[in-house]
């Protein structure tokens, strides 16, 4: 998976005159205090956040010039936080502090967009020099938004349903700018599913590219009540050949300068448009179901992706309409396709049908459905944002206790 990238990421260098402000995420112990003292001639650490779980909200709100995040005992959580901070505060330089060098951690840190990886404690003067060097070296190169394409060469796999509800959950989890793009240019149905028109389509966007800026884009895009934006196709059948692969590449390149996530609903083909979107994608969500025909076609698609030279880590196999009792289990599919199943989405026909009938996302119409919970987990896994499972309602806990007591009584009677 590509590194965290986000909308309109002009990585401007902080002011090089005077003292910069910084924040430290981690315990304020003696080592941390010594670090703050060493970098003080260049950076004044004004905020101390001992609880990493509070770091994201605080940094996103204040956006200091620099952030120093100590990985602590759980590097995975620390790196996940860094990923979110880089996305939330594009003008902030994020430094990772760790007690030891680790090639894998260093590689992952830079892949996530960290300004530098600092081993601390070290000899006096080294930390200050490293921070100065990173600030001086920061450029003005944009960090484009992250692109997810949802794809299947076989129809009926639930592409539009997954793309729509994934956009909903990514926006709800991240609070970032999320755009759902319908590239089914002949007859896209995202607008129809939501009972919304298509005031601004990919065709309109293509015409406006030469004069597009932030104000024009966000005043033209349709914004759903849930907070994500939509670029859907006209209700009537359109002339898709007006857009070629190069046009799609150019459009995505421009859009990623303004948005944090692009989620693309792709048609079931390998047209130049689809290939352009797949090539630009940071993550390809390849949908498959537990049926022989779908598995055979997916196997051909994976072979084709390998011929194109796609990194296997870019491809995420999504088992949609998952049934726990099936002749083809997730492990079976992984073995057949030689690709691990990245996520399973429960088969919940009623919830999905109700959402389509009411023109709502599944989270709005059937929030407690298994499918909705699975899509939320998928969004969390893709974005690196931790989802805390809410406690079961009291009535469910009480009913569970009743059933458990009944079961124990029945076992005792049997004995």
Description:
Residues 1-20 are annotated as: Disordered. With 415 residues, the protein is an alpha/beta fold. The chain folds into 2 domains: 9-142, Rossmann fold (3-Layer(aba) Sandwich); 144-383, Rossmann fold (3-Layer(aba) Sandwich). It is built from 17 helices and 15 strands. It has helices at residues 30-39, 55-62, 75-88, 103-111, 126-137, 159-174, 190-193, 202-208, 214-220, 245-255, 272-280, 292-307, 330-337, 349-358, 362-365, 370-383, 394-414, and strands at 9-10, 20-25, 43-49, 66-70, 93-98, 116-119, 142-143, 146-151, 178-182, 222-223, 229-231, 261-265, 283-288, 315-322, 341-346. The longest helix has 21 residues, at 394-414.
Query: CATH superfamily assignment of the largest domain?
Result: P-loop containing nucleotide triphosphate hydrolases
Helix content, binned percent: 40-55%
How many structural units, i.e. domains? 2
Query: How many individual β-strands?
Result: 15
Which sequence of strands runs across the widest sheet? 10-11-9-12-8-13-14-15
Note the total helix count: 17
- What is the strand content? 15-25%
The biggest beta sheet reads: 8 strands, mixed
Average pLDDT, all residues: 83
Tell me the distance between the termini: 55 Å
Based on CA atoms alone, the radius of gyration comes out at: 24 Å
- Rough shape? globular
Text of the CATH class of the largest domain = Alpha Beta
Low confidence ranges: 1-18, 407-415
Can you lay out the helices and strands and say which pair or pack?
Layout: E1 9-10, E2 20-25, H1 30-39, E3 43-49, H2 55-62, E4 66-70, H3 75-88, E5 93-98, H4 103-111, E6 116-119, H5 126-137, E7 142-143, E8 146-151, H6 159-174, E9 178-182, H7 190-193, H8 202-208, H9 214-220, E10 222-223, E11 229-231, H10 245-255, E12 261-265, H11 272-280, E13 283-288, H12 292-307, E14 315-322, H13 330-337, E15 341-346, H14 349-358, H15 362-365, H16 370-383, H17 394-414
Parallel strand pairs: 2-3, 2-4, 4-5, 5-6, 8-12, 8-13, 9-11, 9-12, 13-14, 14-15
Antiparallel strand pairs: 1-7, 10-11
Helix pairs in contact: 2-3, 6-16, 10-11
Domain Response regulatory: 21-135
Region (Disordered): 1-20
InterPro entries: CheY-like_superfamily, P-loop_NTPase, ParA/MinD_ATPase, Sig_transdc_resp-reg_receiver
